[in-house]
Write a structure and sequence with these properties.
Blueprint lengths: L6 H7 L15 H11 L11 E6 L2 H18 L6 H7 L5 H14 L5 E8 L7 H8 L3 H13 L2 E3 L9 H8 L6 E3 L3 E5 L23
Antiparallel strand pairs: 1-2, 2-4, 2-5, 3-5
Helix pairs in contact: 2-7, 3-8
Length: 214
């Protein structure tokens, strides 16, 4: 399945999908494999290709991952937000709708047909900025490419990092050697209910674009 979107359309309409994930329709393994093939064409630091994608579709395993996700969400609720964070989160009065989506995903995460956990070889615990940039720069472009490829195939995703506070537990569930591998995110994957996604309202370019100096 392909939506035949232009590059600009894919880039500007790949949304964080929560309430419009189709919980009743399995995602064919072939489509996920195609998305991974595209993801691994992304740039990677020194061509080390340290990326990995763990895909969870088994019902029992999904339930175990969902349990860690829900508990981790509650652990992370105390993370402080700045006044600027809060202003931008609700820049267009969208926060109540987003919060509703968060709650929906929390309640239904175990029903999502596939959960993708991107991982990277190497850890950034207490690492320097240089080390962090190199490691995250070797996984983030690939994951975004995966999400764009999913959108073109009528699939929805949402980048979450809720697993982070309980990463050690999620690693144990997945059999991941945590001393060597870092779990970068937890991404629900499903067909979307409708494909008519539009560009989001964002803060103005004048607030984020800087020429020559800050």
């Amino acid at each position: 399945m392909s939506l035949n979107l232009s590059a600009d359309e894919v880039l500007s309409t790949t949304r964080a999908v929560r309430k419009r994930l189709d919980l009743t329709r399995p995602v064919p393994r072939r489509l996920i494999e195609e998305c991974v093939d595209i993801a691994t064409q992304a740039p990677t630091g020194r061509n080390r290709q340290r990326w990995h994608f763990l895909v969870v579709t088994d019902m029992t395993q999904r339930a175990a991952v969902a349990d860690v996700y829900r508990r981790a969400v509650h652990v992370a609720q105390g993370t402080p937000l700045t006044a600027r964070d809060l202003r931008r989160m609700n820049a267009h009065g969208s926060w109540p709708r987003i919060a509703d989506g968060f709650q929906y995903l929390h309640d239904h995460i175990h029903q999502v047909p596939a959960i993708v956990i991107p991982a990277v070889e190497g850890r950034t615990d207490r690492a320097t900025v240089t080390e962090q940039a190199g490691t995250w720069g070797s996984i983030l472009p690939a994951v975004w490419s995966f999400m764009l490829a999913a959108r073109e195939r009528g699939l929805g995703t949402v980048w979450t990092t809720a697993q982070a506070p309980l990463e050690h537990e999620l690693a144990a569930v997945l059999g991941v050697p945590r001393d060597e591998i870092m779990l970068a995110a937890l991404i629900p994957l499903a067909f979307t209910i409708g494909t008519d996604f539009r560009p989001a309202k964002r803060i103005g370019r004048d607030q984020v674009l800087h020429w020559n100096q800050w």
